[in-house]
């Protein structure tokens, strides 16, 4: 079902009580709860609700730019725009929503927007909850201008974790990464899993389409499955950086980890009329699933 909370948020719910809340401000998923009502995404206690600015948490969408490597505002502008509900999404996509609770949003540039990013596009976002409570986000970006354009993209996903020093990421071993903490210099991951004891801000390149984030204390694993998103951003600001952000509580860095399905190393170029699709699927499984089971169960 979908219930409107006021005019700018929609609550998706499954028959077994899982839920997701989507805000039209930025097309941002701001909550994803399991059947016991536990919140799976981080939202800072100091998040600033100043529509349409993105809030510190949930899943802001970064497009057409990632970071501040370009002429636009940090992470591009779509996360700071008001989206609208797309009542008649193209029929060919309806099979995406079989047995799911879904909302379709759409964003197109205004005349004002075209002044600072002169490319016409249609950005369709479908947010769905499966009957098992998995969260699926499908972005379809179509170039409707007369000429090609290129962009970067990320689902800036703030996962809620119990204690960052007890969290491991599996699936990024041996990959190259760009380190934002050293002028995006390129390194190769040597570890057998990514663990955290200080600020991390990296873009892992050409990653597998299934990543596991293990929360030791909660004995649960986030499984991130992606399509069209070759890179993975891993970010925790740690204590010093988070204290410098007004919308970040002093100790909250311990309860969050950004693991973003992204396309950053190689910009995506669309010819006129072409459409790009980037899909992210988030599930939570008991950590009793050892990696072999993860392999068969999730790596398909
Ligand atoms: O790599 C993730 C990152 O670019 C970090 O450098 C940090 O800036 C984070 O995104 C948050 O960005 P925001 O604009 O949401 O404060």
UniProtKB/TrEMBL annotation:
Catalytic activity: alpha-D-glucose 6-phosphate = beta-D-glucose 6-phosphate
Family classification: Belongs to the glucose-6-phosphate 1-epimerase family.
Domain of life: Eukaryota
GO biological process: carbohydrate metabolic process
A single Gene Ontology CC term: cytoplasm
EC numbers: 5.1.3.15
Amino-acid positions noted as binding substrate in the UniProt annotation, renumbered to this chain: 56, 74, 79
Enzyme class: isomerase
Name of this protein: glucose-6-phosphate 1-epimerase
Signal peptide (UniProt feature, chain positions): none
Lineage: Eukaryota, Viridiplantae, Streptophyta, Embryophyta, Tracheophyta
Keywords assigned by UniProt, alphabetized: Isomerase
A GO molecular-function annotation: glucose-6-phosphate 1-epimerase activity
Presence of keyword Isomerase: yes
């Amino acid at each position: 079902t979908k219930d409107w909370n006021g005019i700018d948020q929609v609550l998706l719910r499954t028959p077994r009580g899982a839920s997701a809340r989507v805000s039209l401000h930025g097309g941002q998923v701001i909550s994803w709860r399991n059947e016991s009502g536990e919140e799976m995404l981080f939202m800072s206690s100091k998040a600033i609700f100043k529509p349409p600015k993105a809030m510190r948490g949930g899943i802001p969408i970064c497009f057409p730019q990632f970071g501040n490597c370009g002429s636009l505002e940090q992470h591009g502008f779509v996360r700071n725009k008001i989206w609208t509900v797309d009542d008649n999404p193209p029929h060919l996509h309806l099979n995406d929503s079989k047995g799911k609770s879904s909302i379709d949003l759409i964003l197109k540039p205004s005349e004002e927007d075209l002044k600072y990013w002169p490319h016409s596009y249609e950005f369709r976002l479908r947010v769905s909850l499966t009957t098992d409570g998995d969260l699926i986000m499908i972005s379809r970006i179509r170039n409707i201008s007369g000429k090609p354009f290129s962009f970067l993209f990320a689902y800036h996903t703030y996962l809620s974790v119990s204690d960052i020093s007890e969290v491991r990421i599996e699936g990024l071993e041996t990959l190259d990464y760009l380190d934002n903490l050293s002028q995006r210099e390129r390194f190769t991951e040597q570890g057998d899993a990514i663990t955290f004891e200080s600020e991390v801000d990296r873009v892992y390149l050409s990653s597998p389409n299934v990543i596991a984030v293990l929360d030791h204390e909660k004995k649960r694993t986030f499984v991130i499955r992606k399509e069209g998103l070759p890179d993975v951003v891993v970010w925790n600001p740690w204590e010093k950086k988070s204290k410098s952000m007004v919308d970040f509580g002093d100790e909250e860095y311990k309860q969050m980890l950004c693991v973003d399905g992204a396309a950053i190393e190689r910009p995506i170029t669309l010819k006129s009329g072409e459409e790009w699709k980037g899909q992210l699927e988030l599930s939570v499984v008991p950590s009793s699933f050892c990696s072999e089971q993860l392999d068969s169960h999730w790596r398909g």
